[in-house]
Amino acid sequence: MLTQKNISLLPYNSFHLDVNAAEFVSIETVNQLQELLSQQTPALILGGGSNLLLTRNVDGLVVKIDIRGIDEVKEDNTHIYVRAGAGENWHEFVMYTMKRNWGGLENLSLIPGNVGAAPIQNIGAYGVELKDCFYELEAYDRTEKKVFAFGVNDCRFGYRNSIFKSAEKGRYIILNVTFILRKTPILHTSYGAIRDELKKMGIQSPAIQDVSKAVITIRRSKLPDPAEIGNAGSFFKNPVVDQAKFQSLSSKYTDMPAYPHEDQSVKLAAGWLIEQCGWKGYRKGDAGVHKDQALVLVNYGKATGREILELSLKIQSSVLKKFGVQLEEEVNIF
Ligand SMILES: Cc1cc2nc3c(=O)[nH]c(=O)nc-3n(C[C@H](O)[C@H](O)[C@H](O)COP(=O)(O)OP(=O)(O)OC[C@H]3O[C@@H](n4cnc5c(N)ncnc54)[C@H](O)[C@@H]3O)c2cc1C
Q1: Residue 75: beta bridge partners?
Q2: CA nearest neighbour of 114 among 85, 82, 87, 83
Q3: How far is the centre of ligand 1, averaged over its atoms, from the C-alpha of 77 (Å)?
Q4: Active site residue 92
Q5: Conformation bin of residue 108: beta by default, left when phi > 0, alpha when psi is -120 to 50
Q6: Does the annotation mark 248 as catalytic?
Q7: What is the pLDDT of residue 165?
Q8: How many angstroms separate the CA atoms of 235 and 305, rounded?
């Protein structure tokens, strides 16, 4: 366990923000983590850095979770239970399950980041969320100084949310996650984009690997690659409004996209709201809004986290003014 001093976090965040960490350590085992936490209090826990906006230097210790390992824990006639270390790369783990023909994670292909952060916002894409294949996780409790197991109900998963991003934010460090995957997959291809892509591929009876390939192709064509342009995917969550608010907006904006959500509420498309306020393709200095995806804020090169944060605040206030809808950040701001 080597602690580095005064290092740049530029290679460790997908926004490519050049802030410094006073101390940086990568931990590979639970014992290392426990030993470290008995001596020091980390200022920031880091996975793949793909959902993070760093607005300042980190005066304290950054701990990168690099706990690896994939194990088949148990199986029954229909399911296989697979545990992955928090430091495993998410997409590589999905590919591991695809190779073995275990169904469930195909729609979540190519989401950046690591396994350990995936439950934090209950990652989701193309009609599937992590919670749909979640069995349990183990996390180190920084308050009780013990490792606890969390089942699906303990995690209180919601839309881009969990207990780890809300009520108990910052308390637990996720060590590993166990997934329950199907030996006989059930496909989720109701999204038009997936169906269209499978058609283009000439596939009528898709396997999970085909769905995964379709998702990868769609994502590559739609989303800016952080390797080419700094970003953290969707900057805001899609806002959820009640029926009364939805009715008043949809009578005024007849082409407004909207999707049914839980308990009669309605989910609006944050990207559409932002675009209507004229932000799509906006750029000031090196901070901007992507030219094709209004929901994605970008760093064209040398933007600072502060500049991106200021831009996000302006976007929030213009959406609030025009639509009376408060956008909430999906990205974690430090
Ligand atoms: C191009 C692009 C596309 C994306 N598309 C999607 C998408 O389709 N769906 C979606 O849901 N998300 C998407 N995201 C967001 C991101 O990929 C996910 O949120 C991912 O789970 C973040 O993982 P990470 O390891 O990079 O987390 P990080 O950015 O390193 O960390 C995120 C937060 O979790 C904390 N954290 C990290 N690891 C741990 C741990 N082991 N224990 C406790 N806390 C921890 C950090 O302190 C931070 O607050 C996208 C991002 C990008 C850049």
Answers
A1: 80
A2: 87
A3: 33
A4: no
A5: alpha
A6: no
A7: 97
A8: 13
- Orientation angle between helical segments 192-200 and 208-222, nearest 10 degrees: 110
H or E element, residue 26: strand 20-27
**What's the DSSP call for residue 107?**
G
Local mean pLDDT, 10-residue blocks, the chain (334 residues): 95 98 97 94 97 98 98 98 98 98 98 98 97 98 96 97 97 98 95 95 96 98 95 98 97 96 94 98 98 97 98 98 98 98
* Number of other residues whose CB lies within 10 A of the CB of residue 95: 17
211 ligand 1 Cβ < 6 A: no
Distance CA 175, CA 87 (A): 8
* 3-class secondary structure, 128: strand
**Burial of 75 from C-beta contacts in 10 A (0-12 / 13-18 / 19+):** middle
**What's the one-letter identity of residue 219?**
R
Q: 3-state secondary structure string, 251-268? A: HHCCCCCEEECHHHCEEE
Pick from 71, 72, 106, 111: nearest CA to 91: 111
Q: How far apart are CA 17 and CA 11, in angstroms?
A: 8
Residue 232 near residue 52 (C-beta atoms within 8 A): yes
Backbone angles phi, psi at 13, to 5 degrees: -140, 140
pLDDT digits (tens, 9 = 90+) for 31-50: 999 999 999 999 999 999 99
pLDDT in tens, 93-133: 999 999 999 999 999 999 999 999 999 999 999 999 999 99
Take atom 4 of ligand 1 and give the residue whose Cα is closest: 233
Handedness of CA 221, 227, 229, 233 (dihedral sign): positive
The structure's pTM equals 0.97
234 in active site = yes
Element (H, E) at 151: strand 146-151
pLDDT value at residue 1: 83
Does 63 sit in the ligand 1 pocket, CB within 6 Å? no
- In the chain, the amino acid numbered 165 is K
Torsions phi, psi for 162 (to 5 deg): -165, 175
